[in-house]
Design brief:
303 residues, Rossmann fold, three-stranded parallel sheet, 10 helices, globular, binds NADP nicotinamide-adenine-dinucleotide phosphate, binds ligand LUD
Length: 303
């Protein structure tokens, strides 16, 4: 029977690292890193997640703010708020919680966020940087999954990894990160033929589908590391992942539970991204100061 990768405990370790990093940032710069989370509407799960993001930020010494807008806020107002946050020097990280109400275009909103403040890593520039091996803000959920995989101790170089799901926010960046660690990566999706056989090839299996307990125990290669990103409610309203946990645990060497697996890691990695964004932004401003000829690029902001 496989070991459990305890996302709650590992997220606490990440938060401890973030706390220490925030302390040194404050000592160096005389201010805390700032994170603003924007929630449009009142989707109950989003309300819980965004409150947790604000609260965890504050617990780590980050200036966390949750801004809530009514569900009928016009798209133009959401974009105006993003523009204001882009221009606010105290804000290092901007996160607009998804899903957005139907009348607000997700692509337009994500495009409006300053890529250097894009702590979700959803902007096309950050996706492109990740895909081309440049320093980037990387989506929090895949980053959290990589940390969990690292804690398992599995060697990724040369391993077979299968990611089920190809969303821009989980599946694709997850595949990029595994590839960067030299795994041989397969991305499976709803058109994949014989998904159970594809999954059985995986030394590392990541499920990011959104279908309760779809991945069965006999889809798991004996000894595999299984990362369950899914957050679903079963018919009794209980929170379950995309993996049939008890069955899969019989064959896995390591497996993440739901709840208490990837979810807490997502929030911890958001905090780490916020400090990284704060550091990168201050470094960029310094670079500007040291190269006076380029000062105008940032409107001459001198500090
Ligand atoms: P999404 O955008 O809905 O993407 C789901 C992916 O799964 C799609 O690529 C889809 O394929 C594929 N898929 C759907 N049915 C399938 C099937 N029967 N067989 C194989 N593939 C199938 O979802 P997402 O945003 O990536 O999220 C996935 C899950 O993770 C959800 O449960 C979500 O709540 C959860 N989640 C958790 C966290 C966390 O922090 N724990 C963060 C984000 C998301 P096609 O592309 O072919 O349609
Ligand atoms: N939008 C996310 N929408 C939804 N689970 C999250 C999430 C924590 N812009 C933007 O935060 O990164 C995002 N950026 N997402 N998600 C999902 C996705 C977004 C999901 C679950 C959890 C964040 C979480 O803490 C707990 C767990 O798995 O243990 C359970 C929480 C519960 O519902 O009881």
């Amino acid at each position: 029977m496989g070991n459990i990768l305890d996302g709650k405990a590992i997220a606490e370790k990440v938060r401890a690292e973030v706390r220490a990093d925030v302390t040194s940032f404050v000592a160096e710069h005389g201010r805390a890193p700032g994170l603003t989370v924007v929630l449009v509407g009142e989707d109950p799960a989003s309300v819980v997640y965004t409150r947790n993001k604000e609260k965890s930020a504050k617990e780590c010494g980050i200036a966390g703010t949750l801004l809530r807008l009514p569900a009928d806020t016009p798209e133009a107002e959401v974009l105006a708020l993003v523009a204001k946050l882009n221009g606010d020097d105290a804000v290092d990280g901007i996160l607009v919680q998804l899903p957005l109400p139907r009348h607000v275009r997700e692509a337009e909103v994500l495009r409006a966020i300053d890529p250097d403040k894009d702590v979700d890593g959803f902007h096309a520039l950050n996706a492109g940087r990740l895909a081309t091996g440049q320093p980037a803000l990387v989506p929090c959920t895949p980053t959290g999954c990589m940390r969990l995989i690292a804690e398992s101790g599995v060697e990724l170089a040369g391993a077979r990894a299968v990611v089920v799901g190809r969303s821009n926010i989980v599946g694709k960046p997850m595949a990029q990160l595994l590839l960067a660690k030299h795994a041989t990566v397969t991305i499976a999706h709803s058109r994949t033929r014989d998904l159970p056989a594809v999954c059985r090839e995986a030394d590392v299996l990541v499920a990011a589908v959104g279908r309760a307990e779809m991945v069965r125990g006999d889809w798991v290669k004996p000894g595999a590391v299984v990362i369950d990103v899914g957050i679903n409610r079963d018919t009794n309203g209980k929170l379950v992942g995309d993996v049939a946990f008890a069955e899969a645990r019989e064959r896995a060497s390591w497996i993440t539970p739901v709840p208490g697996g990837v979810g807490p890691m997502t929030i911890a990695c958001l905090l780490a991204n916020t400090v990284a964004a704060a550091r990168a932004r201050t470094a960029a401003r310094r670079g500007l100061r040291e190269r006076p000829g380029q000062r105008g690029l940032h409107g001459g902001a001198r500090r």
